[in-house]
Design brief:
The complex is a heterodimer of chains A (350) and B (298).
Chain A (H helix, E strand, L loop, with lengths): L5 H8 L8 E4 L4 E4 L11 H16 L4 H28 L3 H7 L1 H30 L3 H8 L25 E3 L5 E4 L2 E7 L4 H14 L7 E4 L13 E4 L14 H9 L6 H24 L5 H5 L9 H9 L2 H4 L6 H20 L1
Parallel strand pairs in A: 6-7
Antiparallel strand pairs in A: 1-2, 3-4, 4-5
Chain B lengths: L1 H4 L25 E6 L7 H14 L4 E5 L7 H5 L9 H6 L4 H4 L1 E2 L6 E5 L12 H13 L8 E5 L6 H7 L4 E6 L3 H16 L4 E9 L1 H5 L6 H8 L2 E7 L3 H8 L11 H15 L5 E7 L12
Parallel strand pairs in B: 1-5, 1-6, 2-4, 2-5, 6-7, 7-8
Antiparallel strand pairs in B: 3-4
The chains are: A mainly alpha (350), B alpha/beta (298).
InterPro entries (chain A): MCD1 (IPR034572)
GO cellular component, one term (chain A): chloroplast inner membrane
Organism (chain A): Actinidia rufa
């Protein structure tokens, strides 16, 4: 289908007589040839076919020559009328090309303005999207992935202080009844609370809420001290998750710990000293264990033994005595056991 | 209305207040502020982290204490969880000194964190309050100088943990959300704080949604203030950036450009320094007038 843009070009470049359907009417055949390779939408093909058939039928009758002539003339007239109508239609179409050629300068400006508008809008949308997405929300992703330490989140350089009341984001309206903050306009209304109303509320609350700070904390079953105001007693439930015995904490020590400014903290120092003492004790114990008894030197302290069969048996029957615990020196052990046995033996004799 | 919204520098009670933020001279007595709520999950830990960093941003020396004995979270929000080796329990037991238990943030050298205990360690009931008092006394005369602020992140509830956390405090920041359950608990906690002698109590209303307030599905900040009768330190709008910052360990106030909630935290921190409170609150969102170039995003 020919478009409006192409139609006038053809109308300009070719004479109108050519821009019509060409009919070649022969004696028995009606040829329909479309000129210039385009079709007119309003020329219905079906209509052409029926017309062809009609003409063929009309011409095929050899008997009625006059009638055929009349019909032929009629056909020619109809065709001329149609061609004329076609020409009128073409002529009535606005010569857009001529208009475009005449006003090409202003059209260029209009197109340029439209382009500029689209460009500005797209740039604004892009900047707004970028500023919206430029929050350091991605920092959290970096922290989660372990690429950024969470203690260094946020900005690294301190921000310059902006007075919130001289901030350009805060604009008070000319009539002083509106204020614009962050691009939004709000209506202002004065506060109506007076000092008298505040005092009335304070009195109301003092009547409604009677409370004293608890100073004595007791567990279930503890007696209430006689000189204590019962309103200041607080009972600690036994199943309280954070209840600990107050006597476990030395208050003076805790206070000193809070006030300490220099040096090693108390518990760390205490643990260190305890560890030190334990180490020293271990070292002294090891030294003590390393002491070795010289058998040769021990013999000098031994008493001469009297050979006695029963004493020998007593000595043999208690072999474990020598193996238990720290071995006492032989000079201490044998005289005692031997002495007692000898006494017991000697007594019956006498 | 501008004056109502912005802090009144002229009438501020803070002696070192100036138009430009400057670090005040080191004080001998730190301001011990406990951040509590009663109800859990309203944003105490988030508030502690962001307000603490905002104060450090202002040049003040800050020590934050995570006073939750059993469940520790503040180190996660600050991104310092891998650097906590010692806690206050180890200091009490004499396993380390106090300066060894303090974790200094590498981004800001004037910001330090101290956790009370590791998850499985125990602290005697009734002893924790004394320990915190000793801690504050010890920090006053340390070599690096007395900190300007000690922020204590209080655990949820009104049990032993709450009593421990409020012991050394002389100021309180009450964090609440605009729902009825949170308000009731906040009122109770305020009563207990006043019974314990803490009178300087300011409120931060967290997770505010102006669209729901407009549709009357949520109480307005003024309604909350009317019910509790407390001065407003800050109003923090609902912001999805809070969840992102929690998971990243990158507090909200460090975002550039700042988010709405981050700006609100910074403003609350400045009001805390100036001992000031909000005089006007943001109500509903108005449609912005779009100009000719709004099509281009202008």
């Amino acid at each position: 289908m020919a478009t409006i843009w192409t139609l006038p070009l053809h109308a300009v470049s070719f004479p109108p007589s050519i821009c019509v359907l060409k009919y070649r009417i022969t004696s028995n055949v009606l040829e329909l040839r479309t000129g210039l390779g385009f079709h007119y939408g309003y020329l219905d093909c079906n209509r052409r076919r029926t017309y062809r058939k009609f003409v063929r039928r009309a011409f095929s009758d050899p008997g009625s020559c006059d009638e055929a002539k009349r019909t032929q003339n009629h056909v020619i007239v109809d065709m001329k009328n149609q061609v004329g109508r076609l020409r009128e239609t073409i002529a009535s179409l606005p010569p857009v090309v001529f208009l475009m050629e005449r006003q090409s300068g202003s059209n260029f400006a209009i197109g340029l303005c439209i382009l500029a508008t689209i460009l500005v809008i797209s740039v604004r949308i892009y900047v707004a999207t970028k500023s919206r997405n430029s929050h350091p929300g991605s920092v959290a992703d970096l922290v989660r992935r372990g690429q950024l330490r969470s203690d260094r989140r946020g900005i690294s350089t301190p921000l310059k202080y902006d007075d919130p009341f001289n901030n350009p984001m805060v604009k008070v309206g000319k009539s002083n009844s509106t204020i614009e903050m962050c691009g939004k306009v709000y209506r202002l209304a004065p506060v109506t609370l007076t000092k008298e109303q505040q005092a009335i509320h304070q009195k109301r609350r003092s009547r409604a809420y009677q409370w004293k700070r608890p100073t004595v904390f007791l567990r279930d079953g503890d007696p209430v001290p006689p000189d204590v105001d019962p309103d200041t007693v607080r009972w600690i439930p036994t199943n309280h998750p954070f209840a600990t015995t107050a006597s476990d904490i030395d208050e003076d020590l805790a206070q000193n710990n809070v006030y300490q400014k220099h040096g090693v903290p108390f518990r760390i120092q205490a643990e260190h000293e305890a560890l030190q003492r334990k180490l020293e004790a271990l070292q002294s114990e090891q030294k003590f264990k390393k002491l070795v008894i010289d058998p040769g030197a021990a013999k000098d302290f031994e008493r001469p033994l009297k050979p006695h069969p029963k004493s020998d048996e007593h000595v043999e029957q208690s072999p474990s005595y020598n193996h238990l615990g720290p071995k006492p020196s032989k000079s201490e052990h044998f005289p005692n056991s031997f002495g007692s046995n000898s006494n017991s033996e000697e007594l019956p004799k006498t | 209305m501008r004056k109502l919204f912005l802090p009144d520098f002229n009438n501020s009670t803070h002696p070192e207040s100036t138009v430009q933020p400057q670090a005040p001279a080191r004080r001998r007595h730190p301001r011990v502020v406990v951040i509590t709520s009663g109800k859990g999950g309203v944003g105490k830990t988030t508030t502690t982290a962001n307000v603490g960093l905002s104060l450090a941003h202002l040049g003040l020396s800050v020590v934050t204490v995570d006073a939750d004995v059993g469940l520790r979270n503040l180190d996660l929000l600050l991104g310092l969880e891998n650097r906590v080796n010692y806690t206050l329990v180890e200091v009490l037991n004499g396993d380390c000194r106090l300066d060894q238990a303090l974790v200094r943030d590498k981004r800001w050298s004037n910001f330090e964190l101290l956790c009370i205990s590791k998850p499985r360690s125990k602290l005697p009931i009734g002893f924790g309050g004394k320990a915190l008092v000793w801690l504050v006394e010890s920090l006053k005369d340390r070599q690096e100088g007395c900190p300007d602020f000690i922020l204590i992140d209080c655990p949820a509830g009104i049990d032993a943990g709450f009593i421990t956390a409020i012991t050394p405090a002389n100021e309180a920041v009450l964090v609440t959300t605009p729902d009825i359950t949170s308000l009731r608990d906040a009122d109770r906690v305020t009563g207990l704080l006043e019974c314990d002698g803490i009178r300087d109590i300011k409120m931060i209303v967290n997770r505010v949604r102006t669209d729901m307030i407009k549709g009357e599905d949520m109480m307005s900040v003024l309604d909350v203030q009317e019910m509790l009768g407390l001065a407003l330190l800050g109003v923090i709008p609902e912001d999805s950036e809070v969840i992102r910052s929690t998971n990243r360990g990158y507090p909200l106030v460090l975002n550039k450009p700042p988010t709405l909630a981050g700006l609100a935290f910074e403003q609350a921190a400045w009001r805390l320094v100036e001992q000031d409170s909000m005089q006007a609150v943001m109500m509903e969102e108005e449609p912005k007038n779009r100009g000719w170039f709004s099509f281009f995003g202008g």
